[in-house]
Amino acid sequence: xxxxxxxxxxxxxxxxxxxxxxxxxxxxxxxxxxxxxxxxxxxxxxxxxxxxxxxxxxxxxxxxxxxxxxxxxxxxxxxxxxxxxxxxxxxxxxxxxxxxxxxxxxxxxxxxxxxxxxxxxxxxxxxxxxxxxxxxxxxxxxxxxxxxxxxxxxxxxxxxxxxxxxxxxxxxxxxxxxxxxxxxxxxxxxxxxxxxxxxxxxxxxxxxxxxxxxxxxxxxxxxxxxxxxxxxxxxxxxxxxxxxxxxxxxxxxxxxxxxxxxxxxxxxxxxxxxxxxxxx
Length: 280
Known about the structure:
By secondary structure, the chain is an alpha+beta fold. The chain is built from nine helices and eight strands.
């Protein structure tokens, strides 16, 4: 099962030769649209006034973006987790993955990494712990953290908003049947990469995030999902699908028939003409 490449932080070189984080933009269909900050000779560079966290970014990407936005040494935000005292579920064990809610955050004067992370986590609580999400999770015999974990897989795997509900249904169907999830996005998370191709060797890596070998959900979310993915995770449409593959942009095929899925994967491989894709 193949995921879209998540948006990357946008960096541009100014005329004065310095790297500036482009933190002013808009999130359109889950993609950060960067607006270059140009400086004229003799003018001071304008500091970014907001930080955009796109849907589907991993915690590591958020940490790096906060470092750059606050002009801090690389790794500062990650280290600040120890003293951030974030309001996370017990199941998270201090890891904010999944709870750094995608949104546009103002960069206030003298903002600290701890304040930025706390703002994101508090925003997630407001979005996730309200009646619709909490009740929806309970209706599906899950806690909210498990719903966020499923939503993170949906966010990472779905090729479009329209596909999110079907991807969530595949997750539920596989869990209910005692099948491994076999989601390439979880392996990408373990390897800290983003790719449409997963090799047989990749599926043998020793990681709790290897959903080809480990049963059930991964131990934590694998990205920070937005509201559309959360809605899909608690209210997926009915269907018997167990497999899907995005053969080409705009053409994601869902099926309950393994032989049909094999044919779809073969078509994907023909179009991409690289190493064979996995068939999960």
